[in-house]
Amino acid sequence: MITKKQRVVGCVLTVVGVLVLLVGLFGYLAGDLQMEALQPYADQVYMAREVASSTGKGVDSYFDLHGDESGVHVFYASFEAGGETGMISAMDFEAEETKKALKGENMQFPGTKDNMNLVVTEETPVTLDNGEVFTQGVKLRGWGTSKYRSLKLTVEGPGEMQVYAVSSLPNEDRTMVLYNSLTGEEVAVASAPVLGDAPVEAITFAIPAAGTYYLSTRGDIPIAPLHWLMNMAIMILLAGIVLIFNGIMLTRQCWERMVDLFCVEPALIFFLLFVYYPVIDQIRISFTDMGILTVGKQEFVNWDNYDWLFNKSGAKYFWESLGITATYTFWEVAITLVGGMLLALLFNRMTRSFNAMRAIVFMPKYIAVSTSAVVFMWILYSPVAAGANQSEGILNYALSLFGIQGPHWLVDASTALAGVLILTAWRVVGYAMMIYLSAMKGIPADYYDAASIDGADGVQQFRFITVPLLAPTTLFLFVTTFIASMKVFQSVDVMTGGGPGTATNVMVQWIYNLTFTDFRTARGAAVSVVFFVILLVCTAATMKFSNRNVNYDS
């Protein structure tokens, strides 16, 4: 029975959940999805984050709700500090000029490709209190703290700077702040007035000590809350969904069932947050220009990454890597199934000596891949192996004692993949053997007795009894080994790093190199998405085939 109190609690949770969901949705639309209507706010966060990253401090600054058009127009600036002087004038540049940097005498308006400075033409000439007349000014953008939409200077000692500037808003003064470029701290604050009939007066900023400073505008609302909201958007969204779900269920389910639901929810939330969300977000990243070193926002580039992957330079490496992965997968699956089954037949004896040998064969499965890979590098190739030169390892040295010249396993492109497969075989056959052994023990002895009476020899019994009845086990090993081998990474990364050249550049290694070596995170995500689809299709096809051809009867 659902009590009235429970219904009230459910309704309250639902309402709170909707509010939390909307807050999280706002952060997600502004940050990850970069909704165009919210970009003026998101851009201020990204710019403040860039400054914070360069100064080693947290994100601060203030929102400018008026956006890009609410900056300050600077006409002339000069400073005298530490025995140095400098000046910059808007009349020294071409009207409507957009450049990365506008340079004067020991002063400049710095900029980047994404944050260029703009020389604007004034609607009416502006007269300064020194009598000079300006028909154009340099625009300081009104998007919070930014080193790239500012006035920058470096001084050798204390002094002061004078700036002639006005607010670009028709009826609102603008706050200008002089920041320390190294620490990001505010040094001086002043107000840029609205342009009136009187001549524009100079605004004075005190420079406290030697260093590099930049002058920028700011709003009145702290940026840090939205920065936190954009970073935590998924967590907030998930919290909102959970609250709404629980609120609705409280109005529909009795308390006893709700207790069971509460016990299951932590596991569901864990999978949603750490399994399914990364997959979905990876798809989003594949449509951006995201790089691992990118501090600011990522631009959506539509299908450019997929176009690169299938129609441009990436196509060659994609098909090459897919072919190498398929070759590796074929041999690992063959080694696992054939080697595991043969070893299971060999060790299918219940004696102490065979138990010990089974344990020895199975033991490599418990050794870390990275550790095994380092050991096999020493076996197959090591400059410090006793008696070996710099292209040989212990194995080749042992072969040379018998007059056999072994290949340069991990050095030559023709044998590098085979060298990795030697490690793979050593690790996987023991595991497959144990799985097959457990399945063989489950086959009734009556089948073999009846076959012996009918005159079937050992080979025929293996072919017509053992192999068919091991089909479900074979399918299990095939599917698990296929998926694991297609995703091989650790052994390749440690032993060859995808080399020599691209001889062992399997798909996951290529994705890793794209992301962490070339810093092409978005391209790595695009390859990951395509590779995920390939694995999904192959696994589905395998399962469909098994339903038709595998007999589960014993």
General description of the model:
The protein is α+β, with helices and mostly antiparallel strands. Helix content is 51%, strand content 16%. It is built from 17 helices and 15 strands. The strands form three sheets. Strands 2, 3, 4, 7, 8, 10 and 13 form a seven-stranded antiparallel sheet that branches. The chain has a six-stranded antiparallel sheet with strand order 5-6-9-14-11-12, with no helix packed on it. The protein has a two-stranded antiparallel sheet with strand order 1-15. A hairpin with a 3-residue loop joins β5 and β6. The mean pLDDT is 89.
**Separation of termini?**
48 Å
Low-confidence regions: none
State which percent range the strand residues make up.
15-25%
Apparent shape: elongated
Separate helix tally? 17
Whole-number average pLDDT?
Answer: 89
Largest sheet, in brief, is: 7 strands, antiparallel
Structural class: alpha+beta
Task: Tell me the total number of β-strands.
Answer: 15
Taking all Cα atoms into account, the compactness measure Rg is 35 Å
Helix content: 40-55%
